Amino acid sequence: MSTGTIVLICILVLLIIGVVVLYFLGKKAQKKQAQQQEMMEANKQTVAMLIIDKKRMRLKDSGLPQAVIDQTPKMMRRSKLPIIKAKVGPQIMCLICDEKIFESVPVKKEVKAVVSGIYVLDVKGLHGKIEKAPAKKKGFFKRALEAAQEKAGAKPLK
After folding, report:
1. Distances in Å between the alpha carbon of 93 and those of 14, 60, 82, 127?
2. pLDDT attached to residue 16
3. Which of 58, 69, 91, 151 sits in a 20 to 30 Å window from 76, CA-based?
4. Residues paired with residue 85 on neighbouring β-strands, in sequence order
């Protein structure tokens, strides 16, 4: 066999081993996430709170208890999380918000929130409806693409 064929076979074997390892690690992570989701669903409770502020900030700057910061993996400490500062009863707390609902959380309004520990799962308006987050501005390339499609007579992509 030629040297090129041997190199290609070695690379192919390494890629196959890598895919198998990633497959099993992915299944393990998926099981762990499902278990955590079950636990959060079991411990959730509805709480009335006044949202003071919401920001994306690093874990160490968020104002969360030191025990929470110590328990998080080192890689997560540098990432930015959606943090909500809210008044729950007489005390002001910092809570971690779910990524899916972070944009729809109203600031300086009283809401009923579904909370599991320090994690906010869902938010419902207490007085009136919650306004949807305003649509994001379109970027330069998106506007240029829509203008070109309009000139060509094609329907814009959604």
Report:
1. 49, 15, 14, 21
2. 97
3. 91
4. 53, 94
Domains within the chain, CATH numbers bracketed:
45-125 (2.40.50)
Residue 98 φ then ψ, to 5°: -70, 140
Q: Are 126 and 49 in contact (CB under 8 A)?
A: no
- Looking at the whole model, is its pTM more than 0.85? no
The upper half-sphere exposure of residue 94, i.e. CA atoms within 13 Å in the direction of its Cβ, equals 17
H-state helical runs in the chain? 3-42, 66-71, 74-77, 140-152
Which structure tokens are listed for 83? 């943090």
State the pLDDT at residue 128. 63
Contact indicator for 60, 69 with CB cutoff of 8 Å: yes
Dihedral pair phi/psi, residue 24, rounded to 5°:
-70, -35
- % of the chain exceeding 90 in pLDDT: 44
Phi, psi angles (nearest 5°) of residue 155: -75, 140
Nearest Cα residue to 41 out of 29, 31, 33, 51: 33
- At residue 112, φ and ψ (nearest 5 deg) are -105, 120
Strands (DSSP E) contained in the chain are: 45-58, 80-88, 91-97, 110-116, 119-125
